[in-house]
Task: structure prediction
Amino acid sequence: MKKEEILQKSREEKKDEGKEFIFNKGRKSGVIGMVIMFGILAVFNLYNDRHETTSALIAMFFGYLGSESFGIYTLTNKKMDLLKTVIGCILSISFLVLYFNGVRN
Result:
């Protein structure tokens, strides 16, 4: 394949690799920030005996991980990503149920 053919195919894809790199870097920073904030809030809630809100935090965290794994699975079709999706969703729903039961009582 000639250089011009490769460049032409790249132009037709209408992807900007620079933007993709920036968005991926931003997502990585966002995930790190979310994990740090989750840790701070979870420790605070456990220290102050607020178990019902800890369940909500954990449900949100596993919901995010399950959703992210699903997005990855749709692109890779790897069984491990599907397993992470299923486990993340099950844990998220379980902790959500615990949260709602704690709020009602």
About this structure: The helical segments are 3-13, 17-47, 51-76, 79-104. The mean pLDDT is 84. The two ends are 68 Å apart (CA to CA).
